[in-house]
């Protein structure tokens, strides 16, 4: 349990909770481990649990006729699965799948709801995170409507660098293994188009790719291409 308390202290959603509130909620979480490639739930399923990531990466996506669009990637400290829990009868709005072996903490729907009813602080935090996710979703709608594939690809790489980037000799290293297909599913295009843009970016020495990891050599120079 102590590792959960440490995790909760670092998770913005739970940071403002009092010690008493934390002590109430911690025993309700159940730790579960999942292998890479496990579907946690499908879009349209009944929502039964709230998920908090202790380790690993989870992909949230929708699929249509085998075409996939990635809505978000979540990692340690992120939560998901809350949308279908806030109101009775709502179904899962997207599918969740582990991209790596994952350790997740789950909270049952009834516990999550009871805690929301009792804790205005948690509700406010949840609203803050939801607004931030809505802002990102709006940005994505704009990008898909107005921007070409090259610009969208560069923007996606820059966003990944902001969220998962680590400064490294020679640039900014994105600490996440991504295939061209996964990147294409984030950008909203076909794999061939993303491969072409990545090749151009490598030829122009903006990025280097090593074992599915992207290194951005000069993040400011990359950003200059889009803004
Ligand atoms: N656009 C989005 N951005 C980030 N997370 C999302 C988005 N859409 C759905 N999710 C998450 O994916 C989950 C799918 O199940 P739920 O609808 O229960 O809750 C959802 C959210 O936690």
UniProtKB/TrEMBL annotation:
Supply the alphabetized keyword list.
Activator, DNA-binding, Transcription, Transcription regulation
Q: Which domain of life is it from?
A: Bacteria
Does the entry feature the keyword DNA-binding, yes or no? Answer: yes
- InterPro entries hit by this protein: cNMP-bd_CS, cNMP-bd_dom, cNMP-bd_dom_sf, Env_Response_Regulators, HTH_CRP, RmlC-like_jellyroll, WH-like_DNA-bd_sf, WH_DNA-bd_sf
Name of one Pfam family that matches: HTH_Crp_2
Start and end of every HTH crp-type domain? 147-220
Domain (Cyclic nucleotide-binding): residue spans on this chain: 13-133
> Can you say what this protein is called?
Crp/Fnr family transcriptional regulator
Species in which this protein is naturally found: Paenibacillus ehimensis
Specify the taxonomic lineage: Bacteria, Bacillati, Bacillota, Bacilli, Bacillales
């Amino acid at each position: 349990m102590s590792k959960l308390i440490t995790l909760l202290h670092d998770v913005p959603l739970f940071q403002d909770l009092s010690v008493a509130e934390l002590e109430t909620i911690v025993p309700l979480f159940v730790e579960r481990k999942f292998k890479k490639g496990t579907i946690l739930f499908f879009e349209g399923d009944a929502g039964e649990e709230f998920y908090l990531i202790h380790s690993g990466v989870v992909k949230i996506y929708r699929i249509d006729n085998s075409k996939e669009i990635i809505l978000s990637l979540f990692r340690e400290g992120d939560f998901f699965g809350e949308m279908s829990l806030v109101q009775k009868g709502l179904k899962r709005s997207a599918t969740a799948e582990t991209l790596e072996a994952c350790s997740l903490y789950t909270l049952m729907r009834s516990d999550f709801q009871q805690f929301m009813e009792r804790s205005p602080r948690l509700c406010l935090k949840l609203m803050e995170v939801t607004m931030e996710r809505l802002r990102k979703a709006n940005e994505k709608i704009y990008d898909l409507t107005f921007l070409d594939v090259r610009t969208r690809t560069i923007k996606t790489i820059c966003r990944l660098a902001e969220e998962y980037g680590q400064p490294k000799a020679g640039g900014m290293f994105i600490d996440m293994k991504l295939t061209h297909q996964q990147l294409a599913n984030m950008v909203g295009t076909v794999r061939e188009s993303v491969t072409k843009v990545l090749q151009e970016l490598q030829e122009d020495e903006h990025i280097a790719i090593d074992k599915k990891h992207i290194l951005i050599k000069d993040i400011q120079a990359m950003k200059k291409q889009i803004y």
